């Protein structure tokens, strides 16, 4: 009776207007239950009333647990075929982050350190931006959008408080405004259901598009007891790191419990061990030895007289790439047929990482193709930069020999050479002096100790200047009071 009443409500809300629906689907239990309810409600309606589209979106971060990613991708394929066969206006979409926003481009390419609670650079780029961009496009075309999500009050006390607060601002029956996405309303059909309610429904009602709910239960039984990874449309939504099926690279939690449990519970999943090991290597408590003492912009900032570490250094980034490619080769060789062609890192990502290294970081040794061939035994399938590089291998080796152990000196000379090459053929070389000065400012230190000492002296000078300014203000105030 509860399900029948909910199906009637879904059908009524669907017919009330022409606003398209966007259903968040992660492949987990909550979103599967919501999608089934929407499907069943539409299937009971006359075809003439099924007039507006229902977009089903899932965000693939490209670092999802491979088993879950394969499950969701196959589910979308089955869903698409079944919807077309049944004449339902359900349109599935697999969303991915832009190549410049992917996990490996930022970590290996730009050198961002592994995410931490105080530097969670991943959630916005990998999940929020792709889903929000899709929703904004729907709003741009139709004026409004209704988001249908599987969030439940029973997930957590925080979630219950947020959902209860949103209820107070409902502008229509069961529809709450989304503060982060203008002209978007949120509908949460199963907001009052418990986890047991979800599983009872999934076990008693066959999946209408032909995917097995019992296989989904088996997938959950093979891992830990946390909740699924929700559709993330704002920063208040729990991160995948706090849920069952999240990114295998996630360092926002102490351990990847789901992948660990999958491997322990099933010896046939031991092919995922290199992924788990790489994730644990990323999650080191002190990674200062891997990171530059300068920030991304080249400045030195102190905290308790110690430099705040910046991006991963070149050697560390190259090492992460080797480990990632080695893990990919292992999975392809030892995993089941479903992962024989898996891409833990895509060619588009490799090309963007290479561009960041050569163009933005001036590392024109162009080491990425060599690392790829070294690890995989195959030639690099990307572009040949060839003569566009400032120096050849022989000249680079000579420069490295001249600089010896002075890495800062080598990096500074390398950047100066690269800057000069870029401006060489310009008719107007506007900006060349600024670029050269920036390169010199980044690398004129003798070493890290020299950089820290200079930063300390600069801070002391600033403090003294502020004290002098404060004294001048007091003296001027005394003069003003005497004149009064």
- The helicity comes to 40-55%
What's the name of the CATH homologous superfamily of the domain at 2-237? Answer: HUPs
**In CATH's first tier, which class of the domain at 2-237 applies?**
Alpha Beta
Report the total helices: 17
> Order of strands across the biggest sheet?
3-2-1-4-6-5
Q: Tell me about the largest β-sheet.
A: 6 strands, mixed
Structural class of the helix and strand makeup? alpha/beta
Q: Overall pLDDT, averaged?
A: 87
**Segments where pLDDT lies below 50 for 5+ residues?**
225-232, 238-243
CATH architecture of the domain at 2-237: 3-Layer(aba) Sandwich
What amount of the residues lies in strands? 5-15%
Q: Tell me the radius of gyration.
A: 28 Å
CATH level 3 topology of the domain at 2-237: Rossmann fold
Describe the global form: globular
The rounded distance between the terminal residues' Cα atoms is: 84 Å
Instruction: Write down how many β-strands occur, each being a DSSP E stretch of 2 or more residues.
Output: 8
- Taken in chain order, the helices and strands follow as HEHEHEHHEHEEHHHHEEHHHHHHH
Write the layout of secondary structure elements.
Elements: H1 2-15, E1 21-24, H2 29-43, E2 54-59, H3 66-86, E3 90-95, H4 103-110, H5 121-142, E4 145-148, H6 157-167, E5 176-177, E6 184-187, H7 195-204, H8 213-221, H9 257-265, H10 273-282, E7 302-303, E8 306-307, H11 314-334, H12 347-360, H13 368-376, H14 393-403, H15 407-423, H16 432-443, H17 448-483
Helix pairs in contact: 1-2, 2-7, 4-12, 11-13, 15-16
